[in-house]
């Protein structure tokens, strides 16, 4: 009986050490796989050389004080439409250049500000806010059921809407 309990204690110890060794291995791989993602920062792939704000509040503050319009991109990492638009946005040289004239924010979560979801909480959607902190409901995409949605094929419309946001600002302020 004594040998049997020793054997079961021994097996238990072996099982525990195996489990612990597995966890240690997991931790290391997690850290090493996560490291290359560091430069990704706030851009989340929408334009790594652009300056992105961290929160909606910070973006509003910066827009107001720099007198630049704010461009907010609502998206989700696992949404194929968001991913496709992100790729088109990041690869579009003119958009990336023009984006420098904006305060930029991309959100993977919804804000409590109802002004940012005038026609619903769908992704991807892009809204413009001028420095007087007014949501530009007049700058829309081409879909009547999702006014602020853009698809990769709408990238030139998005570009002209960015130009429009800058132009409207100059004429109105």
Automatic annotation (TrEMBL):
Chief site of localization: endoplasmic reticulum
Keyword NAD in record: no
Entry-linked Gene3D superfamilies: Glutaredoxin
InterPro entries per UniProt: AGR/TXD, Thioredoxin-like_sf
GO MF terms, alphabetically ordered: dystroglycan binding
Keyword Endoplasmic reticulum: yes
Residues in the signal sequence: 1-21
Family label: Belongs to the AGR family.
Protein name as it appears in the record: AGR2 protein
Organism taxonomic ancestry: Eukaryota, Metazoa, Chordata, Craniata, Vertebrata
């Amino acid at each position: 009986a004594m040998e049997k309990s020793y054997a079961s204690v021994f097996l238990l110890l072996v099982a525990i050490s195996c489990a612990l060794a597995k966890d240690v291995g997991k931790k290391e791989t997690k850290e090493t796989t996560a490291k290359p993602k560091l430069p990704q920062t706030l851009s989340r792939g929408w334009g790594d050389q652009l300056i992105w704000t961290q929160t909606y509040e910070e973006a509003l503050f910066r827009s107001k004080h720099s007198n630049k319009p704010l461009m907010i991109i609502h998206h989700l990492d696992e949404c194929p439409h968001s991913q496709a638009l992100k790729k088109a946005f990041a690869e579009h040289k003119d958009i990336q250049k023009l984006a420098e004239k904006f305060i930029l924010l991309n959100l993977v979560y919804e804000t409590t500000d109802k002004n940012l979801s005038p026609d619903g909480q769908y992704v991807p959607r892009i809204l413009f806010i001028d420095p007087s902190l007014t949501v530009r409901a007049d700058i829309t995409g081409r879909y009547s059921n999702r006014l602020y949605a853009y698809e990769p094929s709408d990238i030139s419309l998005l570009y002209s809407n960015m130009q429009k946001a800058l132009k409207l600002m100059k004429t109105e302020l």
